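thread from #wetlab-drylab

HS: before we spend reagent money on co-crystallization trials with magnesium ion, can we at least see a predicted complex? here's what I'd submit
DV: go for it
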Amino acid sequence: MRIGFGKDLHRLVPERPLVIGGITIPYDKGEEGHSDGDVLIHAVADAILGALGMDDIGHIWPDTDPALSGLDSAIIAREVGKLAENRIENIDTVITLEKPKLEPFRKEIRDNLASLLGIPASRLNIKAKTAEGFGPIGRCEAIEAEAIVLLKD
Ligand code: MG
């Protein structure tokens, strides 16, 4: 087995969509970013790339490349899913955000991201937590995601 860990954080700003695992969640702010800012996909992609012993997503999809402006992170998810070549045993994730409540969207996020990665939804777990009002996440100024993956060697 090989293990990989990834995390990502984006600022939340007005007039941007809140995209999590490829699903747009209704909210009055969204992730600031060169791409669509999908924190969950970025964390999962870095976990998979880490388990593969590859460079992180910033090397493969640089935020300095004008051609990648507004990049749909679903493309990143599909690409890392292919790189993992059916070796994904399971992925566990934690999304930390104060608002909105993600529970109503958790199944849709899981199903969509699993499909992008080319794995059964049973191999992907999505958890959401708040920051209990503390720090930038607690003040609804940022969203964070962490992911850990186990790959068959
Ligand atoms: Mg990111």
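DV: Residues 83 and 127 are 25 Å apart (CA to CA).
HS: ok that's useful, forwarding to the group
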